[in-house]
Amino acid sequence: MNCSQSWPEPVVRVQSLSESGISQIPLRYVKPPSHRPSVKDNNVSSSCSTQTEVDIPVIDFGNAFSDNQTLRLETLKSISLACRKGGFFQIVNHGVRPQLLKSVREVWREFFNQPLEVKQEYANSPATYEGYGSRLGVEKGATLDWSDYFFLHYMPVMLRNQRKWPQVPASCRELIDEYGREVVRLGGKLMSVFSKNLGLEEDYLLNAFGGEENVGACLRVNFYPKCPQPDLALGLSPHSDPGGFTILQPDENVAGLQVRRGESWVTVKPVPNAFIINIGDQIQVLSNAIYKSVEHRVIVNSDKDRVSLAFFYNPKSDLLIKPAKELVTEEQPALYQAMTYDEYRLYIRTKGPCGKQQVESLKCS
Fold first, then answer.
1. Tens digit of pLDDT for each residue in 181-231?
2. MF terms per GO, please (predicted)?
3. Nearest residue to 261 via CA among 31, 41, 56, 47
């Protein structure tokens, strides 16, 4: 995959800007008027539309494997509906221990609270994005998002390089490894459910992603510092996730994720110890648009910072991804051209977040 080896401009850490006491954000972070959130009654909605109250489904994932057939089928139906209509849902009773969720959140907050020189040891480049970063995309002069992050590979094993993971705090690497194992296991169960709900063999999607040993999995830990002008900035610009699907551990104390519903933006209220699941572009392609990725963004806050952990479950990077032949009919022909994930993700790594432009560009004419 061809990608720039260096950033086009000196990298500024957003957390350092926030902690410097500025009252106005630099112009580089000011979004165009049509893209800005607006603050109203402590809720943030699109400046060109009103905020609507639409629930993000909360599903007891354990019931998808219940011996009670009625309960199991009801749960599978709820997941299917969420994947087809909204692209987002929350799961509880997912098998990952609440104490592990808490510990991994706390250790990452500790990392971002380390002195800058400690974090700079892990500074990343756009060649792989691994490490401590503050921007997506390599276009010079681009408007930037109000966030820092740490990105690392977990699967396949040959890409897992623990030397690139933080050594500070001392428990960080051990917790990342344990968390990765548990979330990858959960990802496999979700793939099984998605496949069955599409009427495919239970292991179809996993095999399409390269199989258990070759599936891609990576973690992006987001840090959204306090912002003195949250009505002008975004923590993360509107986009759909380029990979298969995302398992997000949100900050339970500060809402920030917003999902597009028509012309409006809906703020997701996190449920304690829940994961937020969202469909990515690769599953949209494989399902021939039966399942849909949905545009989302992140708003920022003037009073509180936020930490969230996004675990991306992706295809093996050199496999061609195209609509499953079982889901292609005369009435519903293949909607998308085949493309490897390596080729596909180059777009967001070059351009940064761009709504749903990329997956729409794959449509067959």
1. 999 999 999 999 999 999 999 999 999 999 999 999 999 999 999 999 999
2. dioxygenase activity; jasmonic acid hydrolase; L-ascorbic acid binding; metal ion binding
3. 56
| Burial tier of 346 (Cβ tally within 10 Å: 0-12, 13-18, 19+) | middle
In Å, how far are 7, 34, 35, 120, 235 from 31, measured between CA atoms? 21, 8, 6, 27, 11
> How many CB atoms lie under 10 A from the CB of residue 6?
10
Q: Does 49 score more than 70 pLDDT? A: no
* 13: in domain: no
Q: Mark residue 211 as left, alpha or beta (left: phi above 0; alpha: psi -120 to 50; beta: remaining).
A: left
**d(C-alpha 45, C-alpha 38), whole Å:** 6
Q: Count the domains in the chain.
A: 1
Which of 199, 187, 200, 160 lies closest to 176 in space, CA to CA? 160
Look up the CATH number of the domain holding residue 72.
Answer: 2.60.120.330
Tens digits of per-residue pLDDT, 110-133?
999 999 999 999 999 988 889 999
74 vs 345 pLDDT, higher one: 74
Q: Is residue 19 part of a domain?
A: no
Q: Is residue 243 part of a domain?
A: yes
Any domain includes 251: yes
For residues 196-206, one letter each, b for 16 or more C-beta atoms within 10 angstroms of the residue's C-beta and e for the rest, the string is: bbbebeeebbb
CA distance 151 to 155: 13
Residue range(s) defining the domain that contains residue 217:
28-44+53-362
- The tokens describing 96, both together, are 């990952």
Kindly report the CA angle at 59 between 54 and 267, in degrees rounded to 5?
30
* CB contact at 8 A, 29 and 147: no
In this predicted structure, what is the pLDDT of residue 68? 97
- What does the block give as tokens for 324? 């499953």
- In sequence order, which residues have a C-beta less than 8 Å from that of residue 159 and are 6 or more positions away? 153, 216
Q: Which position has the token pair 């990342």? A: 176
pLDDT at 127: 86
* Tokens (6 digits) for 137: 């995309």
